Protein backbone atom coordinates (compact mmCIF):
# COMPACT_ATOMS: atom_id res chain seq x y z
CA UNK A 1 0.00 0.00 0.00
CA UNK A 2 0.96 3.65 -0.40
CA UNK A 3 1.38 5.71 2.76
CA UNK A 4 2.76 9.06 3.91
CA UNK A 5 5.49 8.67 6.53
CA UNK A 6 8.21 10.68 8.25
CA UNK A 7 11.46 8.91 9.12
CA UNK A 8 12.89 11.77 11.17
CA UNK A 9 11.53 14.78 13.01
CA UNK A 10 11.42 18.04 11.10
CA UNK A 11 9.34 20.37 8.95
CA UNK A 12 6.63 19.36 6.49
CA UNK A 13 9.30 18.32 3.99
CA UNK A 14 10.02 15.16 6.03
CA UNK A 15 6.61 13.76 5.01
CA UNK A 16 7.29 11.39 2.12
CA UNK A 17 5.25 8.84 0.15
CA UNK A 18 6.40 5.26 0.81
CA UNK A 19 5.38 1.72 -0.08
CA UNK A 20 4.47 -0.42 2.92
CA UNK A 21 3.17 -3.99 3.26
CA UNK A 22 -0.59 -4.35 3.25
CA UNK A 23 -1.73 -5.02 6.82
CA UNK A 24 -3.59 -8.25 7.57
CA UNK A 25 -6.31 -8.28 10.25
CA UNK A 26 -5.78 -10.58 13.19
CA UNK A 27 -8.39 -11.44 15.84
CA UNK A 28 -10.58 -8.43 16.56
CA UNK A 29 -9.08 -6.39 13.71
CA UNK A 30 -10.84 -4.46 10.95
CA UNK A 31 -9.01 -3.62 7.73
CA UNK A 32 -10.28 -0.38 6.19
CA UNK A 33 -9.66 0.89 2.67
CA UNK A 34 -9.12 4.55 3.54
CA UNK A 35 -10.91 7.11 1.39
CA UNK A 36 -10.39 10.31 3.42
CA UNK A 37 -8.45 11.49 6.47
CA UNK A 38 -8.42 14.78 8.34
CA UNK A 39 -5.30 16.84 9.03
CA UNK A 40 -5.00 17.86 12.69
CA UNK A 41 -2.71 20.24 14.53
CA UNK A 42 -1.45 17.47 16.80
CA UNK A 43 0.08 15.65 13.83
CA UNK A 44 2.16 18.73 13.03
CA UNK A 45 3.48 18.78 16.60
CA UNK A 46 4.14 15.05 16.40
CA UNK A 47 6.10 15.47 13.15
CA UNK A 48 8.11 18.35 14.65
CA UNK A 49 9.09 16.24 17.67
CA UNK A 50 7.20 18.52 20.05
CA UNK A 51 5.24 15.71 21.69
CA UNK A 52 6.90 14.28 24.77
CA UNK A 53 6.04 11.72 27.40
CA UNK A 54 6.03 7.94 27.70
CA UNK A 55 3.52 7.48 24.86
CA UNK A 56 5.18 9.89 22.43
CA UNK A 57 6.06 7.88 19.31
CA UNK A 58 9.37 7.96 17.49
CA UNK A 59 10.00 7.86 13.73
CA UNK A 60 9.37 6.15 11.42
CA UNK A 61 5.75 7.17 11.78
CA UNK A 62 2.65 7.38 9.60
CA UNK A 63 0.59 10.32 10.92
CA UNK A 64 -3.20 10.61 10.95
CA UNK A 65 -5.75 10.56 13.78
CA UNK A 66 -8.88 9.49 11.94
CA UNK A 67 -10.36 8.42 8.66
CA UNK A 68 -13.35 7.21 6.69
CA UNK A 69 -13.52 4.37 4.22
CA UNK A 70 -14.80 0.90 3.39
CA UNK A 71 -14.20 -2.34 5.29
CA UNK A 72 -12.14 -4.74 3.18
CA UNK A 73 -11.62 -7.59 5.65
CA UNK A 74 -12.21 -8.50 9.29
CA UNK A 75 -10.37 -10.74 11.69
CA UNK A 76 -11.66 -13.60 13.79
CA UNK A 77 -14.16 -12.62 16.47
CA UNK A 78 -15.24 -9.34 14.84
CA UNK A 79 -18.98 -8.79 15.14
CA UNK A 80 -21.01 -6.05 13.50
CA UNK A 81 -18.72 -5.31 10.54
CA UNK A 82 -18.27 -7.03 7.20
CA UNK A 83 -16.61 -6.32 3.88
CA UNK A 84 -18.22 -3.37 2.10
CA UNK A 85 -19.39 -1.49 5.19
CA UNK A 86 -18.81 2.28 5.17
CA UNK A 87 -17.06 3.21 8.41
CA UNK A 88 -15.21 5.91 10.34
CA UNK A 89 -12.28 5.13 12.61
CA UNK A 90 -9.73 6.69 14.95
CA UNK A 91 -5.99 6.13 15.49
CA UNK A 92 -3.92 6.94 18.56
CA UNK A 93 -0.72 8.95 18.31
CA UNK A 94 1.33 5.99 19.56
CA UNK A 95 0.15 3.82 16.65
CA UNK A 96 0.67 3.98 12.91
CA UNK A 97 -1.86 6.47 11.61
CA UNK A 98 -4.33 6.93 8.80
CA UNK A 99 -2.30 8.73 6.09
CA UNK A 100 -2.36 5.54 4.01
CA UNK A 101 -4.43 3.57 1.54
CA UNK A 102 -5.21 0.93 4.19
CA UNK A 103 -5.62 1.14 7.97
CA UNK A 104 -5.85 -1.79 10.37
CA UNK A 105 -7.91 -0.90 13.44
CA UNK A 106 -9.31 -2.76 16.46
CA UNK A 107 -13.07 -3.08 16.13
CA UNK A 108 -13.67 -0.77 19.11
CA UNK A 109 -12.02 2.09 17.15
CA UNK A 110 -14.44 1.68 14.23
CA UNK A 111 -18.04 2.83 13.85
CA UNK A 112 -20.50 2.84 10.98
CA UNK A 113 -20.42 6.00 8.90
CA UNK A 114 -23.54 8.20 8.94
CA UNK A 115 -25.57 7.59 5.78
CA UNK A 116 -26.06 11.30 5.16
CA UNK A 117 -22.31 11.99 4.91
CA UNK A 118 -19.77 11.37 2.18
CA UNK A 119 -16.27 10.16 3.02
CA UNK A 120 -14.69 13.62 3.16
CA UNK A 121 -17.43 14.93 5.45
CA UNK A 122 -17.19 11.85 7.67
CA UNK A 123 -13.44 12.28 8.11
CA UNK A 124 -13.92 15.98 8.86
CA UNK A 125 -16.34 15.29 11.71
CA UNK A 126 -14.58 12.33 13.37
CA UNK A 127 -11.63 13.64 15.40
CA UNK A 128 -12.93 17.23 15.47
CA UNK A 129 -16.27 15.99 16.77
CA UNK A 130 -14.62 13.84 19.44
CA UNK A 131 -12.56 16.82 20.69
CA UNK A 132 -15.56 19.16 20.76
CA UNK A 133 -17.79 16.57 22.45
CA UNK A 134 -15.24 15.80 25.17
CA UNK A 135 -14.65 19.51 25.79
CA UNK A 136 -18.26 20.72 25.79
CA UNK A 137 -20.32 17.74 26.95
CA UNK A 138 -17.98 15.66 29.09
CA UNK A 139 -15.53 18.20 30.55
CA UNK A 140 -17.40 21.52 30.68
CA UNK A 141 -20.76 19.79 31.26
CA UNK A 142 -22.56 22.59 29.44
CA UNK A 143 -26.29 22.71 30.12
CA UNK A 144 -29.31 24.70 29.04
CA UNK A 145 -29.04 28.36 30.00
CA UNK A 146 -25.25 28.39 30.38
CA UNK A 147 -23.36 31.28 28.83
CA UNK A 148 -20.41 29.89 26.88
CA UNK A 149 -17.53 31.57 25.03
CA UNK A 150 -15.75 29.42 22.41
CA UNK A 151 -12.36 30.59 21.15
CA UNK A 152 -11.26 29.71 17.59
CA UNK A 153 -14.93 29.31 16.78
CA UNK A 154 -14.43 29.20 13.00
CA UNK A 155 -12.16 26.16 13.20
CA UNK A 156 -13.10 22.51 12.97
CA UNK A 157 -13.33 21.87 16.73
CA UNK A 158 -14.66 25.32 17.63
CA UNK A 159 -17.32 25.16 14.93
CA UNK A 160 -18.66 21.85 16.22
CA UNK A 161 -18.43 23.16 19.80
CA UNK A 162 -20.71 26.06 18.79
CA UNK A 163 -23.20 23.58 17.35
CA UNK A 164 -23.11 21.41 20.48
CA UNK A 165 -23.70 24.41 22.74
CA UNK A 166 -26.77 25.41 20.73
CA UNK A 167 -28.03 21.82 20.81
CA UNK A 168 -27.70 21.83 24.60
CA UNK A 169 -29.61 25.09 24.94
CA UNK A 170 -26.69 27.32 25.92
CA UNK A 171 -26.19 30.96 24.98
CA UNK A 172 -22.97 30.78 22.99
CA UNK A 173 -20.50 33.37 21.71
CA UNK A 174 -17.40 32.74 19.63
CA UNK A 175 -14.18 34.54 18.81
CA UNK A 176 -12.84 34.51 15.26
CA UNK A 177 -11.23 36.70 12.62
CA UNK A 178 -13.39 39.50 11.24
CA UNK A 179 -13.77 37.73 7.91
CA UNK A 180 -15.27 34.70 9.66
CA UNK A 181 -17.89 36.51 11.76
CA UNK A 182 -20.84 35.64 9.51
CA UNK A 183 -19.64 32.05 9.25
CA UNK A 184 -19.60 31.68 13.05
CA UNK A 185 -23.06 33.20 13.32
CA UNK A 186 -24.31 30.79 10.70
CA UNK A 187 -23.04 27.90 12.84
CA UNK A 188 -25.40 29.04 15.58
CA UNK A 189 -23.43 31.51 17.69
CA UNK A 190 -25.61 34.16 19.30
CA UNK A 191 -22.63 36.49 19.08
CA UNK A 192 -19.36 36.51 17.14
CA UNK A 193 -16.45 38.64 18.38
CA UNK A 194 -13.71 39.51 15.88
CA UNK A 195 -10.48 39.22 17.86
CA UNK A 196 -8.56 41.17 15.23
CA UNK A 197 -10.80 44.21 15.78
CA UNK A 198 -11.70 44.14 19.47
CA UNK A 199 -10.55 42.69 22.79
CA UNK A 200 -12.97 39.94 23.74
CA UNK A 201 -12.18 40.46 27.44
CA UNK A 202 -13.69 43.94 27.20
CA UNK A 203 -16.58 42.89 24.99
CA UNK A 204 -18.11 40.11 27.06
CA UNK A 205 -18.46 39.11 30.72
CA UNK A 206 -20.33 36.85 33.11
CA UNK A 207 -19.64 33.63 31.23
CA UNK A 208 -20.24 30.24 32.83
CA UNK A 209 -17.79 28.44 30.53
CA UNK A 210 -14.90 29.39 28.27
CA UNK A 211 -13.42 26.88 25.82
CA UNK A 212 -9.78 27.87 25.18
CA UNK A 213 -7.92 26.26 22.28
CA UNK A 214 -5.29 29.01 22.06
CA UNK A 215 -3.60 29.43 25.44
CA UNK A 216 -0.98 32.03 26.31
CA UNK A 217 -2.37 35.52 26.85
CA UNK A 218 -5.82 34.41 25.64
CA UNK A 219 -6.00 31.98 28.55
CA UNK A 220 -5.17 34.73 31.06
CA UNK A 221 -7.72 37.14 29.57
CA UNK A 222 -10.35 34.40 29.46
CA UNK A 223 -10.35 34.30 33.25
CA UNK A 224 -11.62 37.88 33.28
CA UNK A 225 -14.80 37.09 31.37
CA UNK A 226 -15.89 34.23 33.63
CA UNK A 227 -18.32 34.62 36.51
CA UNK A 228 -17.12 33.52 39.98
CA UNK A 229 -17.10 29.73 39.97
CA UNK A 230 -16.96 29.61 36.17
CA UNK A 231 -15.18 26.87 34.24
CA UNK A 232 -12.20 27.44 31.95
CA UNK A 233 -11.74 24.34 29.76
CA UNK A 234 -8.66 24.07 27.55
CA UNK A 235 -7.10 21.82 24.94
CA UNK A 236 -4.44 22.17 22.22
CA UNK A 237 -3.19 25.35 23.91
CA UNK A 238 0.08 27.25 23.86
CA UNK A 239 1.86 27.28 27.26
CA UNK A 240 0.20 29.36 29.94
CA UNK A 241 0.37 29.97 33.67
CA UNK A 242 -2.40 30.28 36.21
CA UNK A 243 -2.16 33.75 37.79
CA UNK A 244 -2.87 34.17 41.46
CA UNK A 245 -5.58 36.74 40.80
CA UNK A 246 -7.85 35.69 43.64
CA UNK A 247 -10.64 34.73 41.23
CA UNK A 248 -12.71 31.63 41.91
CA UNK A 249 -12.18 29.92 38.55
CA UNK A 250 -12.15 26.17 37.89
CA UNK A 251 -9.62 25.19 35.21
CA UNK A 252 -10.13 21.84 33.49
CA UNK A 253 -8.16 20.18 30.72
CA UNK A 254 -10.20 18.31 28.13
CA UNK A 255 -8.41 14.98 27.96
CA UNK A 256 -8.86 13.60 24.45
CA UNK A 257 -9.26 9.85 24.60
CA UNK A 258 -10.81 7.99 21.67
CA UNK A 259 -13.38 5.99 23.59
CA UNK A 260 -15.89 3.88 21.62
CA UNK A 261 -18.74 5.58 23.50
CA UNK A 262 -17.66 9.10 22.51
CA UNK A 263 -17.03 8.08 18.89
CA UNK A 264 -20.50 6.50 18.72
CA UNK A 265 -22.13 9.58 20.28
CA UNK A 266 -20.51 11.92 17.75
CA UNK A 267 -21.57 9.77 14.80
CA UNK A 268 -25.11 9.51 16.14
CA UNK A 269 -25.39 13.30 16.32
CA UNK A 270 -23.94 13.63 12.82
CA UNK A 271 -26.37 11.00 11.52
CA UNK A 272 -29.27 12.92 13.09
CA UNK A 273 -28.06 16.14 11.50
CA UNK A 274 -27.59 17.82 14.89
CA UNK A 275 -23.93 18.55 14.12
CA UNK A 276 -22.63 19.04 10.62
CA UNK A 277 -19.08 18.54 9.39
CA UNK A 278 -16.99 21.56 8.44
CA UNK A 279 -14.67 21.04 5.47
CA UNK A 280 -12.32 23.91 4.62
CA UNK A 281 -10.51 22.34 1.67
CA UNK A 282 -9.60 18.96 0.17
CA UNK A 283 -6.18 17.88 -1.10
CA UNK A 284 -4.96 14.50 -2.40
CA UNK A 285 -2.99 12.32 0.00
CA UNK A 286 0.30 12.83 -1.84
CA UNK A 287 0.10 16.56 -0.96
CA UNK A 288 0.21 15.86 2.79
CA UNK A 289 3.36 17.98 3.22
CA UNK A 290 1.56 20.94 1.63
CA UNK A 291 -1.37 20.35 3.98
CA UNK A 292 0.95 20.53 6.98
CA UNK A 293 2.48 23.76 5.66
CA UNK A 294 -0.98 25.27 5.33
CA UNK A 295 -1.85 24.25 8.89
CA UNK A 296 1.34 25.65 10.41
CA UNK A 297 1.02 28.91 8.50
CA UNK A 298 -2.42 29.49 10.04
CA UNK A 299 -4.01 29.57 6.58
CA UNK A 300 -6.69 26.97 7.29
CA UNK A 301 -9.97 28.30 8.70
CA UNK A 302 -13.63 27.37 8.59
CA UNK A 303 -13.21 23.69 9.30
CA UNK A 304 -11.01 20.70 8.60
CA UNK A 305 -8.46 20.28 5.85
CA UNK A 306 -9.07 16.77 4.50
CA UNK A 307 -6.85 14.48 2.42
CA UNK A 308 -8.61 12.38 -0.22
CA UNK A 309 -6.72 9.12 -0.76
CA UNK A 310 -8.65 8.34 -3.95
CA UNK A 311 -7.09 11.18 -5.93
CA UNK A 312 -4.17 9.60 -7.79
CA UNK A 313 -0.60 10.78 -7.33
CA UNK A 314 1.14 12.16 -10.44
Fraction of residues in H or I helices: 25-40%
- The termini sit apart by 16 Å
Q: What's the shape?
A: globular
Major beta sheet summary: 7 strands, mixed
Compute the CA-based radius of gyration: 19 Å
Describe the structure.
With 314 residues, the protein is an alpha/beta fold. Helices cover 26% and strands 28% of the residues. It is built from eight helices and 15 strands. It has helices spanning 41-48, 119-139, 156-168, 181-187, 200-203, 216-224, 260-271, 288-296; strands at 2-6, 15-19, 29-39, 66-74, 86-90, 102-106, 110-112, 147-150, 171-176, 191-194, 207-212, 226-234, 250-253, 279-284, 304-308. α2 crosses α3 and α2 crosses α7.
Can I get a quick summary?
With 314 residues, the chain is an alpha/beta fold. It is built from eight helices and 15 strands.
Topology summary:
Layout: E1 2-6, E2 15-19, E3 29-39, H1 41-48, E4 66-74, E5 86-90, E6 102-106, E7 110-112, H2 119-139, E8 147-150, H3 156-168, E9 171-176, H4 181-187, E10 191-194, H5 200-203, E11 207-212, H6 216-224, E12 226-234, E13 250-253, H7 260-271, E14 279-284, H8 288-296, E15 304-308
Parallel strand pairs: 8-9, 8-11, 9-10, 11-12, 12-13, 14-15
Antiparallel strand pairs: 1-2, 3-4, 3-6, 3-15, 4-5, 5-7
Helix pairs in contact: 2-3, 2-7
Which properties best describe this structure?
314 residues; alpha/beta; seven-stranded mixed β-sheet; six-stranded parallel β-sheet; 8 helices
Amino acid sequence: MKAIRFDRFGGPEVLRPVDMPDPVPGPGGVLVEVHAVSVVAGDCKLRNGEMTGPRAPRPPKVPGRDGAGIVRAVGAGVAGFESGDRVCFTCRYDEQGSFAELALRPQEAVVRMPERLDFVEAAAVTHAGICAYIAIVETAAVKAGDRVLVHAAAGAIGGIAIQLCRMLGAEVAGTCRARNVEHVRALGAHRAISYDREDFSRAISGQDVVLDMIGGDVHARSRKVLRPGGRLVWLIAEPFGEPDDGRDIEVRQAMIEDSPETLAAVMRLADEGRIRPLVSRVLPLHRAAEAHRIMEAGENTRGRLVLDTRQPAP
